[in-house]
Design a protein that fits this description.
Helix 1 packs across helix 3. This protein starts with a strand and ends in a 6-residue tail after the last strand. The protein is α+β, with helices and mostly antiparallel strands. The protein has a single domain, classed as Aminopeptidase (3-Layer(aba) Sandwich). 34% of the residues are buried. The protein has five helices and eight strands; from the N terminus they run E-E-H-H-H-E-E-E-H-E-H-E-E.
Length: 178
């Protein structure tokens, strides 16, 4: 997994260091962060460690760090696109600490990962989904140039046992950079 630097951020691999575990826990325990993405707020540093070990490290998930301070402020990753079989496609997902909202960090990180996905992975299409209530994520998605495909009704089973609709977006290789 390639380390990516932007003007204000460093995207790099997660570790099981106390710093990374604490960094994830500090923002992931916030009840306004996880539920927007469909996951429950973390209840302990141990839970954050398990997420790092079982989800982040084995998959292509970067820690988002402020370049100046080194502080972890979020995560961003790519996973196989479950909606497109036999197409070189991934789905992007992300989360960001509440205190970092509204500063353009996620748009900056997402644009860097979009470039990586098309340049390094040679994707044909990059997808992203969000819930209808997550207006902040929708703004990031639109700023990055994704096109709205439609609503996948009851397309995501979330942590509280309910099923929610997904707003589905994608970007084709030929749309990237336009």
């Amino acid at each position: 997994m390639k380390r990516i630097e932007t003007e204000r951020l460093v995207l790099d691999k997660w570790t099981t260091s106390e710093e990374d575990i604490r960094g994830l826990y500090e923002y992931a325990k916030d009840p306004e962060v996880g539920p927007n993405a469909g996951w429950k707020p973390h209840e302990s540093e141990e839970e954050s460690r398990e997420i790092i070990e079982e989800l982040f490290i084995p998959h292509q998930v970067w820690a988002i760090r402020e370049k100046e301070s080194g502080k972890i402020i979020g995560s961003i990753g790519l996973e196989p696109d479950r909606r497109r079989e036999n197409v070189n496609s991934c789905e992007m997902g992300y989360s960001l600490a509440k205190e970092s909202w509204g500063r353009g960090y996620m748009t900056e990180a997402a644009r860097a990962v979009i470039d990586y996905a098309f340049e390094e992975l040679d994707l044909v299409v990059l997808a992203i989904c969000t819930g209808p209530e997550n207006k902040r994520s929708q703004r990031v998605i639109e700023k990055c140039g994704f096109k709205f495909e439609g609503i996948q009704r009851k397309g995501y089973h979330i942590y509280d046992g309910t099923d929610r609709d997904n707003l589905v977006y994608s970007m084709l290789r030929e749309e990237w950079g336009n």
